[in-house]
Design brief:
Elements (H helix, E strand, L loop, with lengths): L8 H8 L7 H20 L6 H17 L5 E3 L3 E3 L10 H11 L7 E2 L4 E2 L4 H11 L3 E5 L2 H12 L6 E5 L5 E3 L2 E2 H7 L3 E5 L7 H7 L4 E7 L15 H10 L4 E6 L6 H4 L8 H6 L4 E5 L10 E5 L1 H9 L3 H4 L3 H17 L9 H7 L2 H13 L7 E13 L8 E10 L4 H9 L4 E3 L1 E3 L2 E5 L8 H12 L1
Parallel strand pairs: 1-16, 2-14, 6-9, 6-10, 10-11, 11-12
Antiparallel strand pairs: 3-4, 5-13, 7-8, 12-13, 14-15, 15-18, 17-18
Bound molecules: pyridoxal-5'-phosphate.
Length: 457
């Protein structure tokens, strides 16, 4: 095909905008870019038919269109799925968000006095109350919380931070504790061995330049066998004898005893950490807490106040939308004592849901699926996990829909579900495609049945 025969941008854009609902300038820009690279290919001696070019552009554009943030039905059985946006929000939080987002608010305004007010002061008090802490605050995420803690406590000459070699974890997305330390200007002092670190290892590493001891919860992996580490109370005593604080990054921040909620491991709570002598804890807002992406810092009032005075705090502060959702989530815990039968925190409810209820929903969905021509479908016992770098060994009994495709490949089936509206993500297990109901909301069941009927009918 010659260059002059390349499809016209305008014509292609008109035809594609009938099926792809992106803003027209975006479609035009995309097509222009694609055509330029085809032009170059042809100039370089390549060949292609007009149809090949149009098909390729259509495919690439629909790929691009699918990258726009959109709702996904999570059938993976992974409750806190970092790729799928971690914790979903409850209706109370979502309604509050709508209310604050669509108007003005008292973000930094004192209504009774009619003067400038303090951002997040209600939230900070509620957080401190829930965590039984002297003080608390919130920033954009747990990584930011750790950076600002370190910037505040470990700077200048006194910047040595002692960490056990068993806790130099990679959090995910390639983000490693040693690198976070470096970013914040702290100097990492590694002690102990991977599997064992003794109190004496910490004690021997203390110098006049020690800023703090940092503990990092091994939230995304499990260490068993020949292991040892000192008690937090011992470490706390050691740190305080030398006049510096003990800080812990506990990662997921469960508010309740997770082992009472579901047949899973006990996850450390910030309350217990503080009680055991940790001076400052930080954890994520969108893992087991079930709130928005945020990083919560709690502990000694003097330390929290110092952190808030850091110029860098301004760069990691939460916006009004996050503050709204976080304040609703914390209120929800204070109102319901984290009782999953009462709380509007979806992560907690999903964690505690009974397999009987999940089975009843599976039966209901199956009853809505007429006889399929391209697959057999049934319900099976499955295993859900918490995910999100929490409780790596947790296995939560669950129920899944299991599809054995006959007239379509597994790949085609899962791709069709992923690219449908709404998008549905599941997992394959041997030759079956599975959708775990523990992470699918009851109000999504009809969509699941409809999509399966559509694709496999
Ligand atoms: C998940 C995790 C983090 C990172 O939290 P973000 O809120 O994603 O920044 C930090 N530390 C630990 C131990 C974690 O598990």
């Amino acid at each position: 095909m010659s260059l002059r025969e390349l499809p016209s941008v305008e014509k292609l854009a008109n035809s594609l905008s009938k099926t792809i609902t992106l803003p027209k300038p975006l479609i035009i820009g995309f097509i222009r870019h694609e055509l330029n690279s085809w032009r170059q290919k042809l100039l370089d001696g390549g060949s292609a038919t007009r149809e090949e070019i149009e098909t390729s552009i259509t495919e690439n554009l629909s790929h691009f269109s699918a990258s726009k943030l959109q709702p996904v039905i999570n059938g993976t059985g992974v409750l806190i799925h970092t790729n799928l946006g971690r914790s979903p929000l409850g209706k109370t939080a979502a309604n509050a968000l709508q209310n604050i987002a669509t108007g003005y608010s008292n973000l930094e305004f004192n209504l009774p006095e009619g003067t400038r007010g303090k951002r997040a002061s209600y939230l900070e008090t509620a957080l401190a109350c829930l965590l039984d802490a002297e003080a608390a605050t919130a920033v954009n995420n747990c990584a930011a919380a750790l950076v600002i803690i370190l910037r505040h406590l470990a700077n200048g000459k006194k910047n040595e931070v002692i960490v056990s070699r068993g806790e130099l974890v990679e959090i995910g997305g390639g983000f490693r504790i040693p690198e976070i330390l470096e970013t914040s200007g702290a100097k990492l002092i590694e002690v102990g061995a991977t599997n064992k670190t003794h109190l004496s290892d910490y004690a021997d590493a203390i110098t006049p330049n020690t800023a703090l001891i940092l503990k990092v919860h091994r939230s995304n992996f499990y260490m068993g066998g020949f292991t040892a580490e000192p008690e937090v109370t011992e470490l706390s005593e050691l740190a305080h004898q030398h006049g510096f604080p003990l800080v812990e990054d506990i990662g997921s921040g469960a508010m309740m005893n997770t082992d009472e909620l579901a047949p899973i491991d006990h996850e450390p709570t910030p309350q217990a950490a503080l009680k055991n002598g940790i001076d400052l804890v930080c954890f994520s807002g969108d893992k087991l807490l079930g709130g928005p992406q945020s990083g919560i810092i709690a502990g000694k009032a003097e330390l929290v106040a110092g952190i808030k005075k850091e110029p860098f705090f301004r760069a990691v502060r939460c916006d009004k939308l996050i503050l709204t959702v976080l304040q609703e989530s914390i209120d929800e815990y204070l109102r319901t004592q984290a009782d999953p039968s009462k709380t509007d925190i979806p992560t907690l409810r999903n964690l505690a849901e009974t397999t009987e209820n999940l089975q009843a929903r599976a039966d209901q969905i199956l009853s809505k699926i007429s006889s399929l021509s391209k697959a057999e479908i049934t319900s099976i016992a499955s295993t859900a996990t918490t995910g999100g770098g929490t409780m790596p060994t947790s296995q939560i009994p669950s129920i899944a829909l299991s599809v054995t495709p006959t007239g379509i490949s597994l790949n085609k089936l899962s791709r069709a579900l992923r690219t449908g509206t709404p998008a549905i993500v599941g997992y394959t297990d041997q030759e079956k495609f599975c959708l775990d109901l523990r992470t699918i909301f009851p109000w999504q069941d009809d969509d699941v049945a409809a999509q399966l009927n559509n694709i496999l009918g």
